[in-house]
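Dear H.,

Thanks for agreeing to be a second pair of eyes. The structure we're designing against is below in token form, covering all 109 positions.
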């Protein structure tokens, strides 16, 4: 059980920071530039996973399981978000025949 943090520690913490930052930036760019609601949800999940990676790396480097426990709760909330979000997207697609977020302005009326 103690071997897993040792394997994670073989890679410098800076690499985890760079990789997580790159994933988070890709997610932000996807949310800001894409208009398809499913792609936007995927980019939000990418941002959540980048934060989870960073929490796991910090947790392993400090030999503290609290970060990994927090990751578990983030993943549970993300799964609930995906279930509700996809249900909303399916209902919007049934009504409007599109998942383009620009068309969703019609829902204001």
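And this is the sequence the design step returned. I haven't edited it by hand at all.
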């Amino acid at each position: 059980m103690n071997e897993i943090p040792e394997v994670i520690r073989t890679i410098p913490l800076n690499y985890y920071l760079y990789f997580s930052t790159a994933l988070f930036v890709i997610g932000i760019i996807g949310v800001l530039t894409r208009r398809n609601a499913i792609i936007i949800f995927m980019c939000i999940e990418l941002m959540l996973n980048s934060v989870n990676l960073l929490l796991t790396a910090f947790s392993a480097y400090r030999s503290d399981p609290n970060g990994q426990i927090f990751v578990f709760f983030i993943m549970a909330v993300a799964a609930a978000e995906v279930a509700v979000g996809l249900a909303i997207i399916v209902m919007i697609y049934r009504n409007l025949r599109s998942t383009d977020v620009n068309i969703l302005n019609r829902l204001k009326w």
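Two observations from my side: The chain has a mean pLDDT of 87. The chain has one domain: 3-102.

Warmly,
E.
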